[in-house]
Design goal:
The chain is mainly α and 163 residues long. Helices cover 33% and strands 7% of the residues. It contains 6 helices and 4 strands, in the order αββαββαααα. The longest helix is centred in the middle third of the chain and has 10 residues.
Length: 163
Amino acid sequence: MAIPKTAPEIRFWKKVQIGTPEQCWNWIGNKNPKGYGIFTPHPKRGRGEVHCIAHRLAWEYTFKEQVPVGKECCHSCDNRACCNPSHLWIGTHKENMEDMAKKKRCNSSHGEHHYLAKLTDDAVRFIRAERGRFSLNQLARMFGVSQKLILVVVQRKAWKHVN
Protein backbone atom coordinates (compact mmCIF):
# COMPACT_ATOMS: atom_id res chain seq x y z
CA MET A 1 0.00 0.00 0.00
CA ALA A 2 1.31 3.43 -0.93
CA ILE A 3 1.77 6.02 1.78
CA PRO A 4 -1.27 8.33 1.89
CA LYS A 5 -0.50 11.85 0.72
CA THR A 6 -3.70 13.84 1.13
CA ALA A 7 -5.60 14.71 4.29
CA PRO A 8 -8.70 12.71 3.20
CA GLU A 9 -6.54 9.63 2.55
CA ILE A 10 -4.90 9.89 5.96
CA ARG A 11 -8.32 10.23 7.64
CA PHE A 12 -9.63 7.33 5.55
CA TRP A 13 -6.91 4.80 6.42
CA LYS A 14 -7.27 5.64 10.15
CA LYS A 15 -10.75 4.09 9.91
CA VAL A 16 -9.46 0.78 8.51
CA GLN A 17 -8.15 -2.08 10.66
CA ILE A 18 -5.16 -2.95 8.52
CA GLY A 19 -3.87 -6.50 8.91
CA THR A 20 -1.87 -8.93 6.82
CA PRO A 21 -2.43 -9.05 3.04
CA GLU A 22 -4.53 -12.21 3.46
CA GLN A 23 -6.81 -10.80 6.16
CA CYS A 24 -9.88 -8.64 5.68
CA TRP A 25 -9.16 -5.04 6.59
CA ASN A 26 -12.40 -4.06 8.24
CA TRP A 27 -13.88 -0.59 8.10
CA ILE A 28 -14.43 0.70 11.64
CA GLY A 29 -16.14 3.96 10.69
CA ASN A 30 -19.79 4.56 9.85
CA LYS A 31 -21.66 2.04 7.71
CA ASN A 32 -24.76 2.26 5.58
CA PRO A 33 -27.79 0.03 6.30
CA LYS A 34 -26.40 -2.66 3.98
CA GLY A 35 -23.18 -2.92 5.98
CA TYR A 36 -20.85 -1.10 3.57
CA GLY A 37 -18.46 1.45 5.04
CA ILE A 38 -19.17 5.08 4.21
CA PHE A 39 -16.70 7.95 4.24
CA THR A 40 -16.90 11.67 3.49
CA PRO A 41 -13.62 12.68 1.82
CA HIS A 42 -14.37 16.42 1.88
CA PRO A 43 -16.74 17.11 4.78
CA LYS A 44 -18.64 20.39 4.72
CA ARG A 45 -20.56 21.93 7.52
CA GLY A 46 -24.28 21.48 6.99
CA ARG A 47 -25.71 20.18 3.75
CA GLY A 48 -24.01 18.99 0.62
CA GLU A 49 -21.71 16.34 2.06
CA VAL A 50 -20.84 13.56 -0.34
CA HIS A 51 -20.59 10.10 1.22
CA CYS A 52 -18.50 7.51 -0.61
CA ILE A 53 -18.45 3.74 -0.25
CA ALA A 54 -15.30 2.89 1.72
CA HIS A 55 -14.09 -0.17 -0.20
CA ARG A 56 -14.40 1.74 -3.48
CA LEU A 57 -12.23 4.54 -2.05
CA ALA A 58 -9.73 1.96 -0.77
CA TRP A 59 -9.35 0.69 -4.34
CA GLU A 60 -9.11 4.23 -5.78
CA TYR A 61 -6.61 5.45 -3.16
CA THR A 62 -4.45 2.36 -3.63
CA PHE A 63 -4.41 2.23 -7.43
CA LYS A 64 -4.58 6.02 -7.94
CA GLU A 65 -7.42 5.85 -10.45
CA GLN A 66 -11.17 5.99 -10.31
CA VAL A 67 -13.40 2.98 -10.76
CA PRO A 68 -14.48 3.23 -14.42
CA VAL A 69 -18.00 4.39 -15.18
CA GLY A 70 -20.35 1.41 -15.47
CA LYS A 71 -18.11 -0.79 -13.32
CA GLU A 72 -18.31 -1.83 -9.67
CA CYS A 73 -15.71 -2.43 -7.00
CA CYS A 74 -16.37 -6.04 -5.94
CA HIS A 75 -15.18 -8.13 -2.97
CA SER A 76 -13.50 -11.49 -3.48
CA CYS A 77 -13.88 -12.07 0.28
CA ASP A 78 -17.63 -11.25 0.37
CA ASN A 79 -17.09 -9.08 3.46
CA ARG A 80 -18.91 -5.78 2.90
CA ALA A 81 -16.79 -4.01 5.53
CA CYS A 82 -13.48 -5.13 3.97
CA CYS A 83 -11.21 -2.45 2.50
CA ASN A 84 -8.20 -4.66 1.74
CA PRO A 85 -7.21 -3.69 -1.83
CA SER A 86 -6.00 -7.26 -2.51
CA HIS A 87 -9.58 -8.46 -1.84
CA LEU A 88 -11.12 -6.01 -4.31
CA TRP A 89 -11.64 -6.36 -8.04
CA ILE A 90 -13.34 -4.28 -10.72
CA GLY A 91 -16.16 -5.78 -12.75
CA THR A 92 -19.58 -5.14 -14.21
CA HIS A 93 -22.76 -5.55 -12.19
CA LYS A 94 -23.44 -8.73 -14.14
CA GLU A 95 -20.00 -10.15 -13.26
CA ASN A 96 -20.57 -9.28 -9.60
CA MET A 97 -23.97 -11.04 -9.63
CA GLU A 98 -22.48 -14.08 -11.38
CA ASP A 99 -19.74 -14.22 -8.72
CA MET A 100 -22.42 -14.02 -6.02
CA ALA A 101 -24.43 -16.83 -7.60
CA LYS A 102 -21.33 -19.00 -8.14
CA LYS A 103 -20.53 -18.67 -4.43
CA LYS A 104 -24.18 -19.41 -3.55
CA ARG A 105 -24.52 -16.11 -1.68
CA CYS A 106 -27.78 -15.08 -3.33
CA ASN A 107 -31.25 -15.79 -2.06
CA SER A 108 -32.63 -17.66 -5.04
CA SER A 109 -35.92 -18.50 -3.37
CA HIS A 110 -38.85 -16.49 -4.62
CA GLY A 111 -42.62 -16.52 -4.48
CA GLU A 112 -44.17 -18.47 -1.64
CA HIS A 113 -40.80 -20.03 -0.79
CA HIS A 114 -39.28 -16.67 0.13
CA TYR A 115 -39.17 -16.21 3.88
CA LEU A 116 -40.95 -12.83 3.68
CA ALA A 117 -43.74 -13.97 1.34
CA LYS A 118 -47.24 -12.97 2.40
CA LEU A 119 -48.97 -14.63 -0.53
CA THR A 120 -48.99 -18.12 -1.99
CA ASP A 121 -48.96 -19.05 -5.67
CA ASP A 122 -52.64 -20.03 -5.34
CA ALA A 123 -53.50 -16.67 -3.77
CA VAL A 124 -51.80 -14.90 -6.69
CA ARG A 125 -53.82 -16.96 -9.17
CA PHE A 126 -57.03 -16.09 -7.29
CA ILE A 127 -56.16 -12.37 -7.21
CA ARG A 128 -55.53 -12.29 -10.96
CA ALA A 129 -58.63 -14.34 -11.78
CA GLU A 130 -60.99 -12.38 -9.51
CA ARG A 131 -59.66 -8.86 -10.08
CA GLY A 132 -62.85 -7.99 -11.99
CA ARG A 133 -65.07 -9.09 -9.10
CA PHE A 134 -63.19 -7.43 -6.27
CA SER A 135 -61.51 -4.04 -5.85
CA LEU A 136 -57.82 -3.70 -5.00
CA ASN A 137 -58.84 -2.64 -1.51
CA GLN A 138 -61.08 -5.71 -1.02
CA LEU A 139 -58.38 -8.08 -2.26
CA ALA A 140 -55.78 -6.39 -0.04
CA ARG A 141 -58.02 -6.84 3.02
CA MET A 142 -58.77 -10.48 2.11
CA PHE A 143 -55.07 -11.36 2.04
CA GLY A 144 -53.79 -8.92 4.68
CA VAL A 145 -51.47 -7.07 2.31
CA SER A 146 -51.26 -3.59 0.82
CA GLN A 147 -53.19 -2.38 -2.21
CA LYS A 148 -49.83 -1.64 -3.84
CA LEU A 149 -48.85 -5.32 -3.57
CA ILE A 150 -52.18 -6.37 -5.10
CA LEU A 151 -51.65 -3.89 -7.94
CA VAL A 152 -48.15 -5.13 -8.81
CA VAL A 153 -49.40 -8.75 -8.66
CA VAL A 154 -52.25 -7.91 -11.06
CA GLN A 155 -49.85 -6.01 -13.35
CA ARG A 156 -47.47 -9.01 -13.25
CA LYS A 157 -44.63 -6.83 -11.95
CA ALA A 158 -44.44 -9.15 -8.95
CA TRP A 159 -44.91 -12.92 -8.82
CA LYS A 160 -44.00 -13.08 -12.53
CA HIS A 161 -43.34 -16.82 -12.29
CA VAL A 162 -47.03 -17.59 -11.55
CA ASN A 163 -49.17 -18.22 -14.63
